[in-house]
Amino acid sequence: MNGTDRTRRVIVLNQYAKPRSEGGGTRHTELFERVRGWEHLIIAGNLDHASGQRYRTQDPHFALVPVSAYRGNDHRRVISCLTYCVTALWEALRGPRPDVVYASSPHIFGPVAGWLAARLRGARFVLEIRDLWPQSIIDTGHLRAGSLVHRGLRQLETWLYRRADRIVIVASGWRSYFQQRGIDDAIVEWVSNSAEPEDFDIRQDLIPLRDRCDAHGRLIVYAGAHGPTNGLDLLLDAAAELPEHTFALIGDGIEKQRLVHRARAEGLNNVRFLDVLPKRELAGILGGADIGVHVLADAAVFRLGLSPNKLYDYLAAGLPVVTNSPDEPHDIVMECGAGMAVGVGELAAGIRKLAGLDDATLREMGRQGREYIAKYRSRTVMSARLQRVLDEVTGG
């Protein structure tokens, strides 16, 4: 019996993966459920790192393993990553033998466990890079370039690259990064972040987003992590300049309480903070906003390439978008005529211009963005690319 005569099996290691029933990163849930001829098991940590809460799931494709708790980016986060490596490796060594172990960053400790599991179980090893780690922690000021820790992480990073049967990247602009490290471009595959437009149809059984926010003027939404790299102070700056419109920030993260305190201290009465929502619920109400905001802090690593989930979610929901990010976000928004691409500190100007357009023009921008996602960046399109990676690496 060869690999094409049976259903093959892939184990996915991602500490931060989420089922659809939870808010957060559902990339692997949505991609692997669309791959044909493969059974998948996603091994994730049982801690929501944004809220700090433990959770459970009934999803049969998930195995939640215990990890230590942390808040912030100190030694406790490193300990949490290392505990995931141990518990995820133990889980990966149980059950039927996989054909592929698919391990995803960030962080790169998880992929070390993935490589070892693949070796011990006689499986192929696919390494997915969703964050250029540790370069990203250098560029965001959390690690000193050239330090002993940095040199050690860089060596570990390159060691992993050279042991992967395939490397999957989410941003096509990262190819040069791998070429500079001597990695054969033939093993590097692009499977972008993405969104499925049908998942973002407005659901009439849910409370509309505008009602949840008690909105006045245009409703401008940000849905995503509230962390140091997300640049949400820039969004609050824009809200201060545009008091006639309502700004809804949906999500959680280590910066959220500080942002809430800042908005309160400055009397930003047009800013609403909403808790994390399960992906299905968020998808069903997101299209009720007028404008989606994709914002990031100014960090050198982002200039190498980006593949932001929230941008694709906005476009799939039919929202016109303002982005302050270079490279792919800028190019997509401008190419499909779905909004405004502005400089890092120019969010207010971009939002003001979009908010001043008539409803029909905004709807047309949203339609064009949704059409672009359906054609080039849907989960269906990207799962087909992932299917090819898995089939080719196993000779299927």
Provide an overview of this structure:
The chain has 396 residues and is of the alpha/beta class. It has 2 domains: 8-194 and 378-393, Glycogen Phosphorylase B (Rossmann fold, 3-Layer(aba) Sandwich); 197-377, Rossmann fold (3-Layer(aba) Sandwich), CATH 3.40.50.2000. It contains 15 helices and 13 strands. A 7-stranded parallel β-sheet has the order 3-2-1-4-5-6-7, with helices on both faces. It has a 6-stranded parallel β-sheet with strand order 10-9-8-11-12-13, with helices on both faces. Helix 3 (109-121) links the parallel strand 4 and strand 5 (124-129). The longest helix is centred in the C-terminal third of the chain and has 19 residues, at 359-377. Keywords: Glycosyltransferase, Transferase. Residues 36-193 form the Glycosyltransferase subfamily 4-like N-terminal domain. GO terms for molecular function: hexosyltransferase activity.
Helix and strand layout, with pairings?
Blueprint: E1 8-13, H1 27-32, E2 38-45, E3 62-65, H2 75-92, E4 100-104, H3 109-121, E5 124-129, H4 135-139, H5 148-161, E6 166-169, H6 175-180, E7 188-190, H7 209-213, E8 219-223, H8 232-241, E9 246-250, H9 256-265, E10 271-274, H10 279-285, E11 291-294, H11 309-316, E12 321-323, H12 328-335, E13 339-341, H13 347-355, H14 359-377, H15 379-393
Parallel strand pairs: 1-2, 1-4, 2-3, 4-5, 5-6, 6-7, 8-9, 8-11, 9-10, 11-12, 12-13
Helix pairs in contact: 2-3, 8-13, 14-15
Domain Glycosyltransferase subfamily 4-like N-terminal: 36-193
GO molecular function, one term: hexosyltransferase activity
Keywords: Glycosyltransferase, Transferase
